[in-house]
Amino acid sequence: MGYVIATANMKGGVGKTTLTVNLAAALAKDFGKRVLVVDLDNQISATLSLVPPSDFAKIRREKRTLRYLINQAIQNADQPDARIQDFIRPYVGNTKDLNLLPGDLDLYDEFLVSQKLHEKAVQQQANTNFEGVWTELERVLVWSILEPVIDDFDFIILDCAPGYTLLTRSALACSNFYLLPARPEPLSLIGIQLLQRRLKQLKEVHQFDHEYVMELVGIAFTMSGGLLSGRYSKKVMQRVHSDFGEKKIFQTQIPLDVNVSKAVDSYLPVVISDPTCSGSKAFRKVAKEFMEKLTEILGSKAQKSKVDLVEME
286 by DSSP, 3-state: which? Predict the structure, then answer.
């Protein structure tokens, strides 16, 4: 079974998508992992980082974007017309084992969501309420789309939209782990704090009873150096280190590198288009740290499970 990883921050402009696509590419290229990138942001930056606009326009005309899977899930069709396997784009970025589930400019119909939730609440009036129906949709929406392919990949990385939309909440709710990209600036710190509060609320609402639910792998500082290398940025980083501890901070910082921006013009992650530039080297180091951190988390959890079992016996 693969692991679902959400990349999230309540604040935009922190390099979330760039981290997502380059981490995914490095995991596929350097570690031979089967990776699926899911674009849950209607800015479609992850999609356009991996496929040209002309290809995306064709995908959209063929109704092979995430939008159609989401609307199908909202309508809760017993026999779905669309299969997620038919929507996934393999071999993106000219990279074996790197796959994409393309996003859309309009990911779901808000009127349809309201209509279906109302209908379900009326049908179940005897034993539930609108809030309960909403909570259930939040919990299962993204998961119901991903479940058929969860065993086909080592990692499914969800590029979440900034803010706290329905899809972001549902993505976080179905994630085993999450990554938190941040810029070394005060507003980014606020985004981190807001996300932590939201995650706490989600866990309280849904009362998850299984392992590996929304656990932080680490915080990765992006776009460091240049104008962001002054006194305030150091204070922000010190505060994050103090709040989360050294183990939850990636030692590698992603530098400001014009080659990262240029890579977008070629519709390739920079780790593919320019593997020797400073940005590319940093992302590959982050991928190595990611594997190390995840291995440590899984190892410590397995050890704890053994201890708990012995104590029960």
Answer: helix
